[in-house]
Amino acid sequence: MARAWQHPFLNVFRHFRVDEWKRSAKQGDVAVVTDKTLKGAVYRIRGSVSAANYIQLPKSSTQSLGLTGRYLYVLFRPLPSKHFVIHLDVSSKDNQVIRVSFSNLFKEFKSTATWLQFPLVLEARTPQRDLVGLAPSGARWTCLQLDLQDVLLVYLNRCYGHLKSIRLCASLLVRNLYTSDLCFEPAISGAQWAKLPVTPMPREMAFPVPKGESWHDRYIHVRFPSESLKVPSKPIEKSCSPPEAVLLGPGPQPLPCLVASSKPVRFSVSPVVQTPSPTAQCGRAPVAPRPFPEVSLSQERSDASNADGPGFHSLEPWAQVEASDVHTAAAGTHVLTHESAEVPVARTGSCEGFLPDPVLRLKGVIGFGGHGTRQALWTPDGAAVVYPCHAVIVVLLVDTGEQRFFLGHTDKVSALALDGSSSLLASAQARAPSVMRLWDFQTGRCLCLFRSPMHVVCSLSFSDSGALLCGVGKDHHGRTMVVAWGTGQVGLGGEVVVLAKAHTDFDVQAFRVTFFDETRMASCGQGSVRLWRLRGGALRSCPVDLGEHHALQFTDLAFKQARDGCPEPSAAMLLVCSRSGHILEIDCQRMVVRHARRLLPTRTPGGPHPQKQTFSSGPGIAISSLSVSPAMCAVGSEDGFLRLWPLDFSSVLLEAEHEGPVSSVCVSPDGLRVLSATSSGHLGFLDTLSRVYHMLARSHTAPVLALAMEQRRGQLATVSQDRTVRIWDLATLQQLYDFTSSEEAPCAVTFHPTRPTFFCGFSSGAVRSFSLEAAEVLVEHTCHRGAVTSLTATPDGRLLFSSCSQGSLAQYSCADPQWHVLRVAADMVCPDAPASPSALAVSRDGRLLAFVGPSRCTVTVMGSASLDELLRVDIGTLDLASSRLDSAMAVCFGPAALGHLLVSTSSNRVVVLDAVSGRIIWESTVFQLPGVHPEPCPSLTLSEDARFLLIAAGRTIKVWDYATQASPGPQVYIGHSEPVQAVAFSPDQQQVLSAGDAVFLWDVLAATESDQSFPGAPPACKTGLGAGPLEDAASRASELPRQQVPKPSQASPPRLGVCARPPEGGDGARDTRNSGAPRTTYLASCKAFTPARVSCSPHSAKGTCLPPASGGWLRLKAVVGYSGNGRANMVWRPDTGFFAYTCGRLVVVEDLHSGAQQHWSGHSAEISTLALSHSAQVLASASGRSSTTAHCQIRVWDVSGGLCQHLIFPHSTTVLALAFSPDDRLLVTLGDHDGRTLALWGTATYDLVSSTRLPEPVHGVAFNPWDAGELTCVGQGTVTFWLLQLRGADISLQVRREPVPEAVGAGELTSLCYGAPPLLYCGTSSGQVCVWDTRAGRCFLSWEADDGGIGLLLFSGSRLVSGSSTGRLCLWAVGAVSELRCKGSGARSSSVFMEHELVLDGAVVSASFDDSVDMGVVGTTAGTLWFVSWAEGTSTRLISGHRSKKSHQSGRGGSCL
């Protein structure tokens, strides 16, 4: 079974970043090219010798891919009349590496013990004897689906382990490689597969199919082995006969003649082409992901899982028999996983579910501890810290803050241990019976799960080699028990073996295995220090003679190695600490105390912070933990200090004061960092070299009651039973502020939608507002008599509502910072309802308010402004079949366009009501196991696109496919050890937060369907509300970016992110009014093609959030959006694959093949235009003025390195256009209509060569591609031809101005491009295209091309592309125009005709096409980049932006993550 991070499929090229060639290798002729059929970038591998031209993953033969997916999908096309080879190195479970090769070079099947060679025949168009050989001339794109598990079973009788390496050899085109445990059907669309037991190919993997065409007419699907080969579910024993395919014998077998048939070809050893029927099943492969075996879900489910063969492991006998005894969190289900799990999922109901599966992936955790705060470890390399967060084990990289997780426990983790080589991690969970897990630390895979003989495990300790694990805990009678396990065979597929068990009447607080002898251990506790030894299958111990210290309460111990490094036991010393402040040094050989020291509270003379006996009741300072390195001893005490001592304890070397008692310390292996944890939930480390303390994690010390998210700053607020309110940064998961109240407990929290303010309700009934900037209380209102149960604000921030436990409802006006009470209504909200963050809900248009009340059985809907009651629904009467009166628990509104109100009830149901009429649209029962008492649902929420419904149910999070009412059930996610109190989607809908024992941050793996209004509207909703009202409501919804739903794209648009902090110099607030930037007035005919007006305000960051110079708090990861208010601000070179566009102040360079981005920053204002040199080595970008510069900027970038080589300031206004000369020796820049400046720059040094003030506004400039000494400008009524003459180092300009003929019509020339010499095409603001003879300086032809202004013209060969302000993109055949030039003014436009036309979503402002003008990329003012294929007549959305500023971003037209 593949690891969870490889589900449901893995993009191999993207995961290993093939475009960077750091983890992969290329040899010979390997290049990135653009394929017309797939309309994207692919890798071309060609060469006469296949072995010398290839792509290899991974880079080195000593490395391994480690891909465990059963199926490998190779998307490739052989080059015509060429040979190709595909080599796969596959590792079996017994670690035997087998090479599996496919090629059209092979004439017959050959096999050895370590090599399988298969002839790969793609198409059968010749007699059978000619099948093997060169690829046909019309070779098509092929999806090669290899069942690696069956290949090894059928031909070598081995079990498949993992895919080790891949080599793709010439000659072929390859799009990508994917691995998966699912058998996908590439030819089945979403509409077809809904009622069929097949899984469609994910959109990322699918080949594009034009409308009206068949997939099989354009592509080939090869599945190998074929369905006719009967594959057993396990390796065949030697006494059994081999499978049918092996009986063919060693000799060559005749290859079948391939036909278009849905039946597989029998007795074939070669991969064969199959065109399966849409109704064909996938055979043995699962049709939906089932990444984890489950226990006790249902008997049918267990049987189905066991029948799936070796892909799923059977459970241990004790787990099957005693599953009911295991304490569970996920509705009585303990998730047993032999493979690592990033997201433990329990499937419900049918085996089928909605994709992607899983839809959530855990990204980050805010929290530390749970069962205690003593478990925190360094990894042996000192790069990461391992600690528990309730039921989750977290590995935190201290330098980057990145987290990875070990998931599977269903209760709080009570003990952790890591071996000396970072190979094995052991963990135990708290509640009886204690379940333990052994993990592969490097991969995160659970190697073994077993029950401990102890009832509760308190401590674990590994030997340095990892072969021995010792644990201490309590048995059923409360007696102390010590157990030793042998773990040496676990990594090799063996089991954990109990080596010895021992009971003792002595208290054990700490237990360690010695570093010098794996059979020796030590323990300490109340009045006892004992040395242990494992010998002859028994654990024996003897006490250390403590003398006068026999009554001390010992808390921790550590071994100290002798100074000379001698590993002998006689040279080792044991240090033990106690609650009375004593530190005893014990000779392990003589078992006596050699030295006794005591830590006493002293007052440092003149010290700023005198040490006080704060946390200890005795005269000494209680020591809770110690750790030893070869040079020092770290001591953590209950007075809150971490102290570093030399080994002779002569004086304190360094100390750090904490906010609470230190519970655990651990010195890093290099001795340079000291990890410390406190009982108040803080985890950090002290760097001894810099003497700086670094905070790693903070945590609430009690369950979290509610949470709220701030949209613009990316902040999270939480309130907890520990009486604190904390503000967190969602980007770093670090705490920013905390507010503590000792007299009253916070109960509810919400942010103001537009100001840096949050509101908090308290148990005293007070509602206070806090400033995030000043970190202080602004206003307090005490209109409630009971504890505040819920807070919510309208989306525009004008109104705030609060409810209390006495049933009162308060309405506040928040239009100004000094907010005040408008109304207080008594007996409105249910007084005896439990506190819930979803007790109040405001509709997303801010017009409606819903709450549970006045009784638990009713839900009331009011007008938010007037508080007039509009609707009251009796929930108790909805379920007529139940004898128990139902009550409402939580409410939430769906998107405004749907008009849905969702209510969760005490009977474990979710009811969807019409928010206007109150009628039931549909209802569903929240999944629960038989015999399990239903947990109340305190929180639920619906995504903005109405696609996913999120429910907090007990300790689980349940995600429902809201779009499909007939969905078999939710996806259930475990990880919380206590009931989840609140769930919420992030403002960008790409993440989910859940709060209970800790705060979990989950990534939503489903692509956002931004091209549709609401793809998730249930069928009942559509028929119930009616098509007309729904469409009207959707058109008025503020969430929709456009008035009309655009054409759906063939690829999922990128997911949006949220900027965590405002840019430097700004406060994060957005002013949607005029920012005071100077305005420029243009003629009405040119409004469609005005350049971007760049604001001079420091707050006008366009589309990006730039970090401060230090770059300390945020690293830009991805940018989503395109600046549609620029012009010619996108470049694409099909021959090199270079693709760049602007998003605000950034130049985004994107790899169209992998999606990887580079971000070239430096501009202080929005970028208006781009220009790429003809050599594709230099990119120039220009922007307008900012508040810090009086001139605009032009930056010249090195394309290969992404570095800014030159910075010039040519104009005082916005640069309208840039262009390189054909020889790349000159760069021309054109100022806007205010500047009217034309400047020439030498590209050798980028010094100004010439500058000219133009007499009239000019809209475009271009060099003659056939003559580097000529350039042309077009503008108001004239065409200006410039001739460049070199006179030494100087350049003089000769000007020739030609007026626009009256035949062209009134208007201005707005665009231009050169055609075949000596032709010049010009577009006008009235929609005309006119053709000029540059030699004669006259216009001889014109035709009406559009109703709006022509803002873009491109010419290549005999074709012309025009783009207009109406969004029309036209392809013209202009091959006959050159002949018309001889006719002069008598030429007629009848010889020019339109080949194709497309209508896009906005005025066309940028475009790049290939040399044949068959395909290109086009940008519009709507912030969209389209991929256009004239051959297919289609436009595919590549990047979607925003037409105007986004309210939650400090930029225009984009988002940053």
Range of helix content: under 10%
Average pLDDT reading: 77
Separate helix tally: 9
How much of the sequence lies in strands comes to 35-45%
Radius of gyration: 36 Å
Low confidence ranges: 124-131, 230-352, 604-618, 927-933, 1008-1112, 1445-1453
For the record, give the distance between the C-alpha atoms at the N and C termini, rounded to a whole number.
33 Å
Number of strands: 104
Q: Helix/strand/pairing class, anyone?
A: mainly beta
What spatial form do the alpha-carbon principal axes imply?
Answer: globular
Largest sheet: 8 strands, mixed
Give a concise summary:
By secondary structure, the protein is mainly beta.
Keywords:
single chain; 1457 residues; mainly beta; 8-stranded mixed beta sheet; 7-stranded mixed beta sheet; 9 helices; 41% strand; globular
